[in-house]
Amino acid sequence: MEKKNFDKPEYFVNRELSWLKFDDRVLSEARDKHLPLFERLKFTSITSSNLDEFYMVRVASLKDQVHAGYTKTDIAGLTAKEQLKQISLQTHELVRDQYEVLNKSLLPALEKAGMHLITGHENLTEKQAAFVDRYFEDSVYPVLTPMAMDSSRPFPLIRNKTLNIGALISKKDKKKGKEVLVFATVQVPSVLPRVVIIPSAKEGDTTVILLEQIIERNIDKLFLSYNVVCAHPYRIMRNADLTIDEDEAEDLLVEIKKQLKKRQWGEVIRLEVEKDIDERLLSVLTTEFSIKEEDLFSIDGPLDLTMLMKVYAQEGYDEYKEPKYTPAPVPAFQNDRNLFDVIREKDIFLHHPYMSFDPVVNFIRQSAKDPDVLAIKQTLYRVSGNSPIIAALAQAAENGKQVSVLVELKARFDEENNIVWAQMLEKAGCHVIYGLVGLKTHSKITLVVRREESGIRRYVHMATGNYNDSTAKLYTDCGIFTCDERIGEDATAVFNMLSGYSEPKHWNKLIVAPIWMKDRFLKLIAREAENARKGIPAAITAKMNSLCDPVIMAALYQASACGVTINLLVRGICCLKVGIPGVSENIHVRSIVGNFLEHSRIFYFQNGGSEEIYMGSADWMPRNLDRRVEIVFPVEDEDIKEELKHILDLEFRDNVKAHLLQPDGSYIKQDKRGKTLVNSQMEFCREATEQAEKIKKQPEHSRVFIPAEPMEMEEP
Question: In whole angstroms, how far apart are CA 50 and each of 19, 353, 431, 475, 508?
Answer without folding.
Answer: 10, 22, 35, 16, 39
